[in-house]
Here is the input.
Amino acid sequence: MIELYTDSSPNGFKATIALEELALPYRLHHVKIDEGAHRRPEFLALNPHGRIPVITDDETGIALFESAAILLYLADKTGRFLPSATKARWQAIQWLQFHASSMGPILGQRVHFEMFAETRIPAAIARYRRLTEEAFATLNQRLSESPWLAGEDYSIADIATFGWTHIAEICGFDFSQYHHLARWQGRVAARPAVQRGIALPAPATGP
Here is the structure.
């Protein structure tokens, strides 16, 4: 049995979507960040950095944090959503890395400076709006060339990227001008497992 420790956030939704897509048995533990549950000793024993999601797998004895690592582990465990063909496999890993090192951090900073920062800093807001648009343009270009980020097949790269584009949509970030990205967003959002995943442990309603 997989134990999943998570909350409603872009990173959390990646894990719930993947587990729902893979139909793996798991038990959900709601780590309520707004109540400080991610800073309690029992959670820090799982992830000393105090971030969700975290999984533990009783079958293998493996415990993991960082959503990209969790997605790679689940794909490896099941043999699904990470292509076996060499080129497509590395495309999936490449776009998974793009989400982890570029897209997620950029969107996270934009959400912070536009919606949560106590003092509005126009230069920071402008910077992260520009970087967001650049990330959306990069994704749009890729999706003009293939239906999914890894090529012909839906993969963990799509799951990871959707975790953030879903939140971007909720926050009102408009990427409708990026037609290929917007169409991809609609296709992913229509998947039944994705719809279940973004409702766990509770739907995100906004900043």
Notes: The mean pLDDT is 96. The radius of gyration is 17 Å. Strands lie at 2-6, 26-30, 54-57, 62-65.
